[in-house]
Amino acid sequence: MPRQVRIQYPGAIYHVMSRGNRRQEIYLNDVDRQDFLKTLAEACQTTGWGIHAFCLMSNHYHLLLETPNANLMPGMAWHQSTYTIRLNHRHKLIGHVDGSDRRKIHASASAALGWRRCFRLGRAKAVSGAASFRFSRDLRSS
User: Fold this and answer.
1) pLDDT tier for residue 108 given thresholds of 50, 70 and 90
2) 3-state secondary structure the chain
């Protein structure tokens, strides 16, 4: 079956989720989480993306982002490969980090509000301890 067509256009809002390869952890420590966010910030500078919310779990992450240009796919490819290279170098690992379980769901602004609420609810259920909370934010609360 062919892959679904990716909807990309200027000003689109997406809920992006990516799980680790074989559902393994994609962050080994807080330095890795900080590096993931640093790499994401670099991707945002390059692409012009705006991050509405994010949640980093042990073996996957969720992003709610807006693309001022139709550039989700190349930006995500750069982010994933750059983070993987940095993680592998730091921990002397080989191979890719992200698995085949990736979702990029296009949505309206009203759906984005609902996703931000889901992120907050999921974060409240999933986060065990204040240290983990640092890696989850709703940047455009309403």
Assistant:
1) low
2) CCCCCCCCCCCEEEEEEEEEHHHCCCCCCHHHHHHHHHHHHHHHHHHCCEEEEEEECCCEEEEEEEECCCCHHHHHHHHHHHHHHHHHHHHCCCCCCEEEEEEEEEECHHHHHHHHHHHHHHHHHHCCCHHHHCCEEECCCC
Q: Does residue 73 contact residue 18 with C-beta atoms inside 8 Å?
A: no
**Residue 53 in contact with residue 140, Cβ under 8 Å?**
yes
Q: What percent of the chain has pLDDT over 90?
A: 39
Q: What angle do CA 85, 89, 90 make, to 5 degrees?
A: 120
Please state, as a whole number, how many other Cβ atoms lie within 10 Å of the Cβ of residue 49.
23
Contact present, 83 and 76 (Cβ < 8 Å): no
Which amino acid belongs to residue 115?
W
pTM of full prediction above 0.90: no
